[in-house]
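LOG
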Amino acid sequence: MPGKIRVASFNINGIKARLPRLLEWLEETRPSVACLQEIKTQDEGFPAAEFEKIGYGAIWHGQKGFNGVAMLADGQQPVEVQRGLAGDPEDLHSRYLEADVFGLRVAGIYLPNGNPVPGPKFDYKLRWMERLRARMAEIAAEELPAIVTGDFNVIPEDKDVWSPKAMEADALMQPESRDAYARLLADGWTDAIDTLNPRGGVWTFWDYQAGAWQRDHGFRIDHALLSPELADRLIAAGVDKEYRGREKASDHTPVWVDLRVE
């Protein structure tokens, strides 16, 4: 095993539509673990064989037409711990997948968007964040080297968006969303990308509309939170920005953290 492990997250925005792009990224960057969001496919339609061909084991939690999360591991099969969050038996969305892999506890998440504000979708977002916090507290109590990564649909601070004014009415930037995210950090989790880029200006999402990519009108909503046991093993964290500029790209770009192997 190499001296470091790379755990990455990629909101692929439709795994079937963007499979060539996804395989290209996996082969070019070779993350040890890749958490995927918005796979937008039912379980039986997940292209596991395509990942096996290039050496990745996979688990997935699909849903017809939207949402859906998956986890890939290079040369390993992730050992599933939990799918979905406790606390709301009526919530049937596929948004959470947790597994043990490479000696780490890895949780991949696709947090609700929450628009329009106010409304039931925003209320659902905030409830989901409370349920996530409860699960993260359980993981923390086990004192595991753990990472929770994915599309959080929260712009944590004004430095994380090209124009705070342009996004001020959006669910991603509401004080309640930001407060819920800040509570996760206050519980002892480390925002890896922010820690290594304290001045901000790092984007992970550019809308398809209004030439957002060409004008670099982006924001940071894809995050990687590390438990105290893992935070001191952080080597590097970043964004694979160039993949947003490729043909038929997702509107998100991959984010990753490099962690020292103990």
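LOG (cont.) second protein
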Amino acid sequence: MRLPQTRDLFIREFDFPAHRDTVIEGVGDVELDAMYGDPETIAEVLSRTDQAEFDSVDELYDALITFVGEQYIGRKFYDDRGMNPETDEEVSF
């Protein structure tokens, strides 16, 4: 499942507030498609947070997005800015 689709899944499956254990029990085995590397399950991601209860779907989705692994990050260390060697000023391309 793609990360943005999880928000709709959470809306369909849970009433809020929802306990982390309830979420893991209900949809924890759902694999999240990773752009780079191996996928993770929702349970693996949520096991990284100490938050025991989510007051809203947005809070749950934000926790998921916050704790996904680096295989979900786009181009690491990408910066579209550079330095102008003549002036040592930052430039945008």
